[in-house]
Design a protein that fits this description.
With 290 residues, the protein is α/β, with parallel strands linked by helices. The protein is built from seven helices and 16 strands. It has one domain: L-arginine/glycine Amidinotransferase, Chain A, CATH 3.75.10. A four-stranded mixed sheet has the order 6-7-8-16. Strands 2-1-15 form a three-stranded mixed sheet, with helices on one face. The structure holds arginine (ARG).
Length: 290
């Protein structure tokens, strides 16, 4: 039986005042299928309230008018409980202005900023690819984050980093096929990864909860755990039995407007309390799949 997660109690969210589909950078997006602004705000607010009801805290940042994907706050940067933040260096140019605002926010809120690159120079890193789990920072790479960024994270922060290569265009961030549930359990969707990374994933997660295709593509792994509540965009009956059996209260919310941009509950929330000091190793260490 796993212990409760040490993180996931404090989040940054971006109010969706300018959420549109202006460009297509993942297979879920279509400029012909625009979100409804009123419904978008209602769904976002139900998520903010659910986090507070579960005993979590939410900081709210205003959205830039020129950055329609900024609502997916998970990608603004990787923040730690001891006050560090690794700013994202977005793969696609239309998202790069988000980092200007994120840098100011993290600095004003007391986080010491680092970055893997800027304006297309240096390796790309998107923080929707990174989670503390077990003895390491688990980082997905391939579609968005580059392997070079993992080396940067390991050495700059003196942490153990374990990479997983994502090999599925519909699972372009690690937060789509991977969701830590407690210290030993995580929801996982192995077909998102190449063969060597599936082997590594099985080593990293002692108690995997393997998702079906239908569950994975309903954004099931894009869920968050706040204290003993798991807030999910969808949950099949058999999964609900598994999760309640672990002592969790399951809350399911409709975030469908945000699925039009290719993200759901995890993507909309950036945890500000990753316990990175617990995975410190002098000089850093990078483990990549064979
Ligand atoms: N349209 C956004 C993109 O493609 C969606 C980001 C989803 N966020 C996430 N953490 N998976 O970048």
């Amino acid at each position: 039986m796993g212990q409760s997660l040490e993180w996931g109690r404090r989040y940054l969210m971006v109010r969706p005042d300018h959420f549109r589909i202006d460009y297509v950078i993942n297979p879920y997006m279509s400029t012909h299928d625009q979100p409804d602004p009123a419904l978008t705000l209602k769904q976002w607010d139900s998520l903010r309230q659910a986090i507070i009801d579960a005993g979590g805290e939410v900081e709210v940042l205003a959205q830039r008018g020129d950055s329609p994907d900024m609502v997916y706050a998970m990608n603004l940067g990787l923040a730690t409980a001891d006050g560090r933040a690794m700013l994202s260096h977005m793969r696609f140019e239309p998202r790069r202005k988000e980092s200007l605002t994120a840098a100011v926010w993290f600095t004003e809120h007391g986080f010491a900023l680092s970055r893997t690159g800027t304006d297309g120079v240096g390796p790309h890193f998107e923080s929707g690819d990174a989670f503390v789990f077990g003895d390491s920072l688990v980082v997905g790479y391939g579609p968005r984050t580059e392997a070079e960024a993992l080396k940067h994270l390991a050495t700059e922060w003196n942490v153990r980093v374990r990479g997983l290569r994502i090999a599925h265009e519909g699972m372009y961030h690690l937060d789509l096929p991977f969701c830590p549930v407690d210290s030993t359990h995580a929801m996982v969707y192995p077909p998102a990864f190449d063969t060597a990374s599936q082997v590594e994933l099985a080593r990293i997660v002692p108690d995997p909860i393997v998702l079906t295709d239908d569950e994975a593509f309903a954004f099931t792994a894009n869920s968050i755990v706040v204290n003993d509540t798991i807030i999910m965009p969808s949950c099949s009956p058999r999964l609900e039995t598994v999760l309640t059996g672990l002592g969790l209260t399951v809350v399911v919310l409709d975030l469908a407007e945000f699925h039009k941009g290719g993200g759901s509950i995890r993507c909309l929330t950036n945890p500000l309390d990753f316990p990175v000091s617990a995975i410190t190793t002098p000089g850093g260490e990078l483990v990549l799949p064979a």
